[in-house]
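Aim 2 progress. For Biotin carboxyl carrier protein of acetyl-CoA carboxylase, the working sequence is reproduced below.
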Amino acid sequence: MTKKNHDADVAFIQALAELLRENDLTELQVKRDYGADDSLNVRVSRHVQQQVVTQVSPPAAAPGPAPAAAPAAAPAASGGSDDPAEHPGAVTSPMVGTVYMQAEPGADPFISVGASVSEGDTLLIVEAMKTMNHIPAPRSGTIKRIVVEDGAAVEFGTPLVILE
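Predicted structure tokens for this construct:
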């Protein structure tokens, strides 16, 4: 490869990295063919750390599970929604794509309701532009609800799971 091609390739890779940042992508892969036996295969990726805001409720005045159950019933009785997007433990999709619950067809799913996960564990995969993006657990906890189905299309901000 000539020096000229090398400089052009470096500029090309820098442009890909900028494209990654500007479009809030996590990974980009491109193959550039120069000729029969000359090509450049580039994969640029970045780790995106999700921030999750968690509401902490004040301790109940009376011990036991009854006070915790009462607030959950109150919003439904007053016409409040059961929207998973409003749940403080919701983990949302960082991109538009298709959800996969396992690494490959026939494999065990990454998570199940009631399973304990550690921060950074893969919850599921969102495929975007033929790139498999592992969605990590933002914190340790227990899977309370899986909101999406395997193979479902999701938008940016769509609730995926409830993690408590």
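The first strand starts at residue 27 and ends at 35. This observation will guide construct design in the next reporting period.
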